[in-house]
Amino acid sequence: MKPEHQDLILRACAASSLRVGAKIQTLWSGYGEIVRLHLEGCDRPSVVVKHVKFPEEAEHPGGWNTDRSHTRKVRSYQVETHWYQNYSTDRSCRTPACLAASSHGDEMLMVLEDLDVAGYDQRRTSVKDREIKACLSWLAHFHALFLGVTPEGLWPVGTYWHLETRPDELEAMADAELKAAAGDIDKKLNECLFKTVVHGDAKLANFCFSQSGGDVAAVDFQYVGGGCGMKDVVYFLGSCMEERECEKRVPGLLDFYFTELKQAVKKDVDVVALEKEWREMFAFAWTDFHRFLLGWMPGHRKINRYSKQLTKEVLRKLKP
């Protein structure tokens, strides 16, 4: 670690010394790493540092190494830094506090609160009802908190699969009917009356759980931006349930999400209109992500019967 980075961390945490601990993960396509640092001489035993360093040659698992892909990733880290420095949430949708951030040349550094120390030290690769509902509650409170907020400094339209940022994947699609309808689906989602700030990458892996699994915090805000809350909900549900589970459980889980959302929004919000509009957007949001997958990785396991059925419904609705 560079001396200037060490100095920044020591100053931000009022620590006397630091020790580099375990690497938590390597960032997508080799764009840096996330590490835990152990501190001495202050009231924080540790912090998590997201250290972004743009590679000379990116390694994309799907082979999408383009200038457009690189520009999108660079922007995503700028957005994330802006998010952590300028936005905050409450306990109902917990995120790590940002203690310091810096950007110089091809490197960026975010010094974040260690959520393990805060009691969110569990990660899940599979989840039961309690954990799914904890994440949906987090999303509902997050969407309620930012309902009507302009995504200043963030992506104008959040999520990493937003159509405007993915022309290469659209071009690669073999499904001609969905390809032709992609713009209309995107327009429908963008013209929602009720807009919020979406997390943009709300998969199971980006939630940190308490011991009981009943309380969660979220990380990874590279694709945070404006949009319909359903985008986060469909992406989360698809990340933790197989097609049969989706068919069986989605209706009840959507009911739970909307109950949480309606309780969390400000009193002057027309909750009946909000729920009606976003319920109508559910299939559109699911199909929008399905569109991305078909172009990005046509053999992906999430391209299943449930997704195809929702896509059929949406294409039927769009027919004049």
Automatic annotation (TrEMBL):
Residues 110-267 form the CHK kinase-like domain. Signal peptide: none annotated. SMART domains: CHK. Pfam families: EcKL. PANTHER family: PROTEIN KINASE-LIKE DOMAIN-CONTAINING. This is CHK kinase-like domain-containing protein. It comes from Zoarces viviparus (Viviparous eelpout). The lineage of its organism: Eukaryota, Metazoa, Chordata, Craniata, Vertebrata.
